[in-house]
Write a structure and sequence with these properties.
81% of the residues lie in helices and 0% in strands. By secondary structure, it is an all-alpha fold. The chain is flat and about 75 Å long.
Length: 279
C-alpha cells in the first residue's frame, strides 16, 4: 500500500453533526403518524367489506364527527368522564407505586423475601379480575375504593419487578467501593442503587401508567355505581346503539392512556437523561 493510500486510510473521520430540533421532532412524530394513517386505511378497508346492514358497527369518520366530536354535549360528557377515569387511575397508581417500590427494595435487601414473595407476585398478576369481583364487592362495596383496588392490581406487578431488575444490575465494583467507604446499605441504595435502577424503574412506571387507564375502565364495567367515567360511557353508548359515541369514548380513553404514558416518560427524561440518556 502506498503512502498516499495509507494516509487516506488513517484520515480522521469528523464526528457527525447532531440532528437539528426539526429533524429530531420529525423522527419522533412521523413514524407514529404514518402508522396511524396505515391503521386508518386498514379500518376503512375492513369497513368497506361490511354489508350495509352492519355498517353501523364501524362508523365512518364523517359519522364520528357529526354525531360525536362536533356536538358540544358529547364533548362535555367526554371531558367530565375522562376526569373521573383519570382520578381512578391516579388513585390506583398512588397506591401501587409506593407499595411496589417498597416491595422491590425489600426483595433486593433480603433474598429470602424475594424467593417467598415472587411466586405470589406472579400469581397476583395471573388472577382473572372477573373471578374475584364478588369478593371485592363483598369486602369494599360498589363505590370508589374497589375501582382503585382493581387499578392497583393491574399496575402493581411491573413496578417491583423492574426495580428489582435495575437494582440487581448495579455494578458489583460500585457496591464494593461503597463497602470500602463503610457506607451503610441505605446510603448505597440511595446514592448508587436508585440512580442505576432508574431506567428500569421508569420503564415499569410507563407500563403501569398505560395499564392504569385500562384498569380504571375495566373497573367501571364491573362497578357501575358512583360517578361514571369513560367505561360507563362505553356501556351506555353500546346499550343505546350510539356507536359513534362509543368510538368517541374509545378514542378518548386511548388519548388519556397515551398522555399518562408520556407524562411518566417526560418525568423520567427530566430526572435522569443527564445520567442515562433518554429513558
Amino acid at each position: 500500500m502506498s503512502d498516499a493510500s495509507t494516509l487516506r486510510a488513517h484520515k480522521p473521520v469528523p464526528n457527525r453533526a447532531p440532528p437539528t430540533p426539526v429533524v429530531r421532532f420529525a423522527c419522533s412524530v412521523l413514524p407514529p403518524v404514518i402508522l396511524g394513517i396505515a391503521l386508518l386505511g386498514l379500518y376503512a378497508w375492513v369497513r368497506a367489506g361490511l354489508p350495509d346492514h352492519r355498517l353501523f358497527l364501524m362508523p365512518s369518520g364523517a359519522g364520528l364527527w357529526e354525531r360525536a366530536f362536533s356536538r358540544p354535549d358529547v364533548l362535555a360528557e367526554l371531558g367530565q368522564r375522562a376526569l373521573v377515569t383519570l382520578s381512578i387511575a391516579a388513585a390506583g397508581l398512588a397506591c401501587s407505586i409506593p407499595m411496589g417500590i417498597l416491595l422491590g427494595m425489600i426483595m433486593f435487601r433480603l433474598v429470602t423475601m424475594e424467593r417467598a414473595i415472587f411466586p405470589y407476585l406472579v400469581a397476583l398478576q395471573s388472577i382473572p379480575i372477573l373471578a374475584i369481583i364478588p369478593l371485592i364487592q363483598a369486602a369494599l362495596g360498589f363505590g370508589f375504593l374497589p375501582k382503585v383496588l382493581i387499578v392497583a392490581m393491574f399496575t402493581f406487578f411491573s413496578i417491583p419487578t423492574t426495580l428489582l431488575l435495575g437494582l440487581k444490575s448495579l455494578d458489583r465494583g460500585v457496591i464494593d467501593l461503597f463497602r470500602l467507604a463503610s457506607a451503610s446499605w441505605w446510603i448505597t441504595l440511595w446514592k448508587a442503587g436508585f440512580p442505576s435502577a432508574a431506567p428500569a424503574l421508569f420503564a415499569g412506571l410507563r407500563i403501569s401508567a398505560g395499564l392504569a387507564v385500562i384498569g380504571a375502565i375495566v373497573s367501571e364495567l364491573f362497578f357501575l355505581a358512583g360517578a361514571g367515567g369513560l367505561g360507563q360511557m362505553l356501556i351506555n353508548a353500546k346499550i343505546d346503539f350510539k356507536y359513534e359515541e362509543m368510538y368517541a369514548a374509545l378514542i378518548a380513553s386511548s388519548v388519556l392512556s397515551i398522555s399518562v404514558y408520556l407524562f411518566f416518560q417526560f418525568v423520567g427524561n427530566r430526572l435522569f437523561s443527564e445520567w442515562h440518556g433518554r429513558v
